[in-house]
């Protein structure tokens, strides 16, 4: 009965270290692959957006941006600046 006892103990004491290391390596490889894929997608979006932004920017350069705030720091001026900055936002679904 001695040999039977040894085989049972060796089956019960399996080493899980190599399994854990393999899983960690596979997980790291998956994360790196997703990171590279996301960066390539992001680069393509930036290139597409840049081309459309150039045409949009050239057509919008003629319109000046009105100043919304002034440099006064008294409460009434701050309230007026706040009211001016949020005017019309409800119409734009914000």
Task: Label this structure with key terms.
94 residues; mainly alpha; elongated
What would you note in describing this structure?
By secondary structure, the protein is mainly alpha-helical. It has a domain at 15-62. It has helices at residues 2-12, 17-60, 75-86. The radius of gyration is 32 Å and the shape is elongated. The mean pLDDT is 74.
Topology (elements, then pairings):
Blueprint (H helix, E strand, L loop, with lengths): L1 H11 L4 H44 L14 H12 L8
Number of DSSP strands? 0
Structural class: mainly alpha
Question: What is the string of SSEs from the N terminus onward?
Answer: HHH
Q: Main β-sheet: number of strands, strand sense, barrel status? A: none
Describe, in short, the structure shown.
By secondary structure, this protein is an all-alpha fold.
């Amino acid at each position: 009965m001695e040999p039977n006892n040894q085989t049972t103990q060796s089956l019960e004491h399996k080493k899980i270290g190599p399994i854990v290391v393999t899983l960690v390596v596979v997980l790291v490889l998956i994360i790196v692959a997703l990171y590279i894929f996301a960066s390539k997608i992001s680069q393509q979006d930036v290139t597409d957006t840049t081309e459309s932004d150039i045409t949009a920017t050239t057509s919008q350069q003629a319109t000046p941006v009105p100043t919304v705030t002034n440099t006064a720091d008294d409460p009434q001026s701050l309230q007026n600046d706040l009211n001016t900055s949020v005017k019309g936002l409800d119409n734009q679904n914000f």
